[in-house]
Input
Amino acid sequence: MKTPQLVVHRSKELMAEAAAARLITAVVDAQAARGTASVVLTGGRNGNGLLAALAAAPARDAIDWSRLDLWWGDERFLPGGDPERNVTQAREALLDRVPLDPARVHAVPASDGPHGDDADAAAAAYAAELAAAAGPGAEVPAFDVLMLGVGPDTHVASLFPELPAVRETARTVVGVHGAPKPPPTRISLTLPAIRAAREVWLLAAGEDKAKAAALALSGEADEARVPASGARGRERTLWLMDEAAASELARQR
Ligand SMILES: O=C1O[C@H](COP(=O)(O)O)[C@@H](O)[C@H](O)[C@H]1O
Output
């Protein structure tokens, strides 16, 4: 796996704008090379900040939105349309303003969906949807870009330190129970599914991410205790940060 690369921006606003520009280029390049692109979205403040910056970027029209598959790295297991669901927030920030093909917007099932409040069944259904879109012999698509927010406790997607989900090696998607951050029930891609992505981008802006980033990038972390340290892409792992989130890295050097 590749050593993470760091890009530190002066502010969280610049980070969001630069990451949005980077995403436009990555999607346009993937569509030129393969006809379509697949991107995994993240929830949280930094992920939503990027989507809002993308909505405001004139170059967003360079993307062929009808040939873009969107997936989610995790979801808060709540009823459809709940304002706390990652998909609801993504729709508000960007998705409702661009001409996506609805069949290519792969939202994670909601808690009032076909699987009711059974998060494990909903996770299995999402795994099946991913497998159906994957190439021969693969369990998930070779995502072009998979984005992850980083929690102050070093969680990524809904893989929280020391919960069973972070140790999962067989399944690609799991139900998460007893998450320390509300809501307690969630659905998450596992580390093996995350590592199938060509590029993994970790978004970390703000002082509250500084310790988490330093720990994850120390090179000494155990991924069960520091899930962010286990998030790597096949071709590239990129940490996109602002100066506040990078402040503890400077002290480390
Ligand atoms: O609950 C979640 O939190 C993380 C991090 O969010 P942030 O607001 O601290 O940046 C996010 O990556 C994840 O997708 C989301 O479900």
